[in-house]
Design goal:
Blueprint (H helix, E strand, L loop, with lengths): L9 H38 L28 H28 L4 H24 L7
């Protein structure tokens, strides 16, 4: 039985070489970056003075010696305010592109309805936060 041979043209080999050339450049840059960081850390370790003292081993907190445990209670309301900020920041991110699409011909009615649905969801979230008393600073 005759064996089947696969013939590749020079164009196919050149196409594959061009394809992998882009990846080899990225790989080379990644290796150079890793080596640069490794050399910097190695040089820092070799050149720095190593004189451990008890004062250097203490935890430093704004010039005040630490007292007690490392755990501290934090008010949850700060996270809620941050979460509400993120919600309204995302709202503004969606409003600006919507305004540009709304001005384009043929998209006015559909985008207007979609934006009011989106703003409705945000209003329900804000109403929920207001009903729960999250927006009260006490």
């Amino acid at each position: 039985m005759p064996e089947a041979t696969v013939r590749t043209s020079g164009a196919d080999v050149q196409l594959a070489a061009d394809y992998f050339h882009g990846y080899s450049v990225v790989g080379l840059l990644a290796v150079i970056g890793v080596l640069f960081v490794a050399v910097a850390f190695g040089a820092g370790r070799l050149l720095r003075p190593v004189v451990p003292t008890p004062e250097k081993l203490l935890t430093y907190e704004c010039g005040v010696d630490p007292v007690g445990e490392g755990w501290a209670h934090t008010q949850v309301r700060y996270y809620v305010y941050a979460f509400l900020y993120v919600i309204f920041a995302v709202d503004s991110i969606f409003l600006f592109p919507w305004a540009t699409v709304f001005a384009a011909p043929g998209f006015g009615g559909a985008t207007l309805v979609e934006m009011f649905v989106f703003l409705g969801f945000l209003a329900v979230g804000l109403l929920y936060a207001w009903k729960k008393g999250v927006l009260e600073w006490t």
